[in-house]
Automatic annotation (TrEMBL):
Subcellular location: Cytoplasm
Keyword Repressor set for record: yes
Keywords carried by this UniProt record: Cytoplasm, DNA-binding, NAD, Repressor, Transcription, Transcription regulation
Name of the protein in its database record: Redox-sensing transcriptional repressor Rex
Domain CoA-binding span(s) in chain numbering: 80-181
Organism: Salinispira pacifica
Entries under InterPro entries matching the protein: CoA-bd, NAD(P)-bd_dom_sf, Rex_DNA-bd_C_dom, Tscrpt_rep_Rex, WH-like_DNA-bd_sf, WH_DNA-bd_sf
Chain residues that bind NAD(+): G91, A92, G93, N94, L95, G96
């Protein structure tokens, strides 16, 4: 199966920010929001916002803007956030625990059903409502719980071996927080995440604005 390439990747990455702004407008009791207001909030060009939002199929009205409720539904639907995504976490350490405790994921359909870790201090415990199991239960639990997404927060030297186990168990997508480029079959989606990218942008922006400190 070919690797899925998304032409609209930057747009997809901006959609959650749009959703935050539009949800805030809904909380303020607004029925409509203009592309210009969204653009101002996010320091983007209005044309960019309108182009991005067109991908969700929702059309704004001249001088009135976008209907807030429909826009929220359209963004959630485009992002597949209106569906339940059954997930597990492998590696219940510092990062794994932080992700288990992040309530936004639940609000957006991500249901973390179990975590797996070899540490006897963690097995049998519950972290933020998520039960931690031993690694030798992983394959059976993935099948039993009908899980499709695995969040990988293991030490880097364990990443490839764990990924291979996940693929064998039938996992369809791996959200990879390790710094390893995983080798998996083409039908398994891998999304690699790196907080350092954000830090890099922050540091360079700060240097440009204030000079090196
Ligand atoms: N992408 C990012 O921005 C980012 C940020 C922080 C950490 N990380 C990466 O995430 C990973 C975890 O970082 P951390 O700070 O949580 O480390 P940590 O040491 O706190 O946690 C790692 C956990 O994995 C468990 N583990 C070890 N071998 C395992 C295996 N084979 N299967 C399942 N679990 C196993 C350990 O017992 C531990 O609980 C590391 O690879 C780190 O480099 C990435």
């Amino acid at each position: 199966m070919p690797i899925v390439k998304l032409a609209s990747l930057p747009t997809i990455k901006r959609l959650p920010s749009y959703l935050h702004v539009v949800e805030a407008a809904q909380k303020d009791g607004k029925d409509f929001i203009s592309g210009t207001i969204i653009a101002e909030e996010l320091e983007l060009e209005p044309i960019q916002v309108r182009k991005d939002l067109a991908i969700t199929g929702i059309v704004g009205k001249p001088r009135i803007g976008f209907p807030v409720k429909e826009l929220i539904n359209a963004i959630n639907s485009f992002l597949e956030w209106d569906k339940i995504h059954r997930a597990i976490i492998v590696g219940a350490g510092n990062l794994g625990r932080a992700l288990m405790g992040y309530a936004e994921f639940k609000r957006h359909g991500m249901s973390i059903l179990a975590a797996f870790d070899p540490s006897t201090d963690k097995i049998g415990k519950t972290i933020c409502g998520v039960p931690v199991h031993s690694l030798n239960q992983m394959v059976n639990k993935i099948r039993e719980l009908d899980v499709h997404i695995a969040i990988l927060t293991v030490p880097s030297d364990q990443a490839q071996a764990v990924a291979e186990l996940l693929v064998k168990a039938g996992i369809k997508a791996i959200w990879n927080f390790t710094n390893v480029k995983l080798k998996v079959p083409g039908n398994v989606v891998v999304q690699k995440e790196d907080l350092s990218s954000g830090y890099a942008v922050l540091a360079v922006k700060m240097a440009r604005q204030h000079g090196s400190v």
